[in-house]
Design a protein that fits this description.
The chain contains three helices and no strands. 48% of the residues lie in helices and 0% in strands. It has a domain at 1-34.
Length: 67
């Protein structure tokens, strides 16, 4: 990859990041082409039933419901 293409890709990624950081999602979507496949992994964190974090995060959550 030559320097001009590398610089162009770099600037595109910076622009994309700025749009996402500013929550300008419509403008970000306009950057995408119709044939793009966008994939984003996700992760689910779960606390054990006995965790004190559950009571902190959800004060209405009664420990009597946890069996």
């Amino acid at each position: 990859m030559n320097e001009d293409v590398s610089r162009e890709v770099e600037q595109f990624l910076y622009r994309e990041a700025r749009l996402l950081d500013k929550r300008r999602f419509r403008e970000w979507l306009e950057l995408l082409t119709e044939d793009v496949r966008y994939w984003m992994g996700s992760r689910s964190n779960r606390y054990p039933r006995s965790s004190k974090a559950i009571a902190i995060l959800d004060p209405d959550h009664s420990t009597s419901r946890m069996i």
